[in-house]
């Protein structure tokens, strides 16, 4: 007999008949909320309401369908945006009712000095701070719904309600979280990965003769210059933090990433520029791409494409997402049932600005 534990994907739901699905979902909070909703909605009750005849099982059918839709859209049926893997989530995530998040940028002072066993004057070490910086937390909202006629038509045809409505809402919220995490929102004063750059060093890509971009250097046969750029970026983060922060990641625009990952170091060497760099760098262990870095110079007050070398750790840079994705109970609006969905975000904060460095003109 199928049980609720067996429902791991939309395919598992489709494999159950209605009786089994009732048993499998009877403990679901979303199902119970929907049952309460249809119990109070007269058009889902059996009998006649004016000239409207309602089947006795319409409410149960709709409750099962909303549970199926909800479970399906929570499955990753679309490629998640890059912000989830490239920007760590804050380890001190505020509660879902928080309206703002306040943080301080790290600033250390003091060193340990040698002394004697009888010394009672140990050098004082302080962890000072720059700030406070406050990031407002705002909602991202979207909704989908089904009309009474759509529900009855699906029941009559023994078909599922169209899941695509919910999937689009899930995607819209996902894209919204991505945009706020990377760009912030200037109107709402929410900081972003490319816009909350107080204290984060910014430099122009080094030119080799008249060639500055990766494409120009490779076209001129200066592949070693590209390799030198990648190493210089990693070294810059180590040096600017006096060795306290070791960069782990370099992010490039997609075109530049593709270029160095497919261009061999030499005609008799099958290793690409990217592979050669990763095999020899003492610091960076990952080079990835972020499409939003194309022409991102405008966000840092410069021109051209942008690259960044940084420590991918929540102690250095992190995003605030108190509510990732949440569906509210169904709501009756005339002849339509609407499911409101939302997330809450506070953007991205650089708490250790010396843990990263941006390079423009790549």
What is the string of SSEs from the N terminus onward? HHHEEHHEEEHHEHHEHEEHEEEEEEEE
Largest sheet: 5 strands, mixed
Number of helices: 11
Query: End-to-end distance, in Å?
Result: 60 Å
Radius of gyration: 27 Å
Percent helix, as a range, is 25-40%
Strand composition percent? 25-35%
Low-confidence stretches: 1-10, 46-56
CATH topology of the domain at 202-319 and 354-360: hypothetical protein PF0899 fold
Write out the strand line-up for the largest beta sheet, numbering strands in chain order. 6-17-11-7-10
Q: Tell me the CATH architecture of the domain at 202-319 and 354-360.
A: 2-Layer Sandwich
Provide the CATH top-level class of the domain at 202-319 and 354-360: Alpha Beta
Mass-distribution shape: globular
- How many beta-strand segments? 17
Structural class: alpha+beta
Mean pLDDT: 81
Oligomer: single chain
Tell me what the structure shows.
With about 350 residues, the chain is an alpha+beta fold. Among the domains are: about 1-75, no CATH class; about 200-320 and about 355-360, hypothetical protein PF0899 fold (2-Layer Sandwich). It has helices spanning about 10-15, 20-25, 30-40, 60-75, 85, 150-155, 165-185, 215-220, 225-240, 255-260, 275-280, and strands at about 45-50, 50-55, 100-110, 125-135, 140-145, 200-205, 250, 265, 270, 285-290, 305-310, 315-320, 325, 330-335, 335-345, 345-350, 355-360. The strands form 6 sheets. It has a 5-stranded mixed β-sheet. Strands 5, 13, 14 and 15 form a 4-stranded antiparallel β-sheet that branches. Strands 1-2 form a two-stranded antiparallel sheet. A hairpin with a 2-residue loop joins strand 8 and strand 9. The longest helix has 20 residues, at about 165-185. It is globular, with a radius of gyration of 27 Å.
């Amino acid at each position: 007999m199928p049980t609720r534990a067996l429902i791991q994907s939309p395919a598992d739901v489709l494999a159950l008949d209605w009786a089994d699905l009732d048993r499998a979902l009877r403990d679901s909070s979303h199902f119970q909320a929907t049952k309460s909703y249809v119990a109070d909605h007269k058009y889902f009750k059996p009998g006649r309401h004016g000239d409207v005849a309602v089947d006795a099982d319409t409410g149960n059918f709709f409750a099962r369908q909303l549970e199926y839709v909800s479970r399906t859209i929570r499955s990753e049926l679309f490629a998640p945006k890059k912000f989830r893997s490239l920007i760590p989530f804050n380890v001190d995530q505020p509660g879902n009712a928080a309206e703002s998040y306040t943080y301080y940028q790290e600033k250390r002072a003091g060193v340990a000095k040698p002394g004697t066993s009888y010394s009672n004057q140990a050098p004082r070490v302080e962890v000072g701070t720059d700030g406070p910086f406050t990031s407002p937390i705002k909602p991202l909202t979207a909704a989908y719904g089904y009309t009474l006629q759509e529900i009855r038509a699906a029941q009559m045809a023994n078909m599922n309600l169209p899941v695509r409505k919910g999937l689009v809402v899930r995607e819209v919220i996902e894209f919204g979280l991505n945009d706020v995490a990377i760009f912030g929102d200037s109107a709402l004063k929410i900081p972003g990965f490319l816009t909350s750059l107080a204290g984060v060093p910014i430099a122009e890509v080094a030119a080799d003769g008249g060639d500055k971009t990766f494409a120009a250097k490779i076209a001129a046969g200066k592949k070693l210059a590209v390799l030198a750029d990648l190493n210089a970026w990693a070294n810059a983060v180590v040096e600017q933090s006096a060795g306290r922060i070791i960069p782990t990641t370099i992010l490039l625009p997609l075109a530049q990433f593709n270029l160095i990952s497919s261009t061999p170091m030499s005609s008799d060497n099958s290793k690409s520029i990217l592979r050669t760099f990763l095999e020899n760098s003492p610091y960076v262990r990952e080079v990835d791409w972020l499409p939003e870095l194309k022409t991102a110079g405008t966000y840092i007050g410069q021109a051209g494409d942008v690259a960044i070398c940084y420590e991918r750790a929540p102690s250095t840079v992190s995003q605030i997402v108190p509510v990732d994705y949440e569906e509210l109970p169904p709501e009756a609006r005339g002849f339509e049932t609407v499911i409101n969905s939302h997330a809450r975000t506070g953007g991205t904060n650089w708490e250790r600005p010396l843990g990263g460095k941006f390079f423009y003109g790549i």
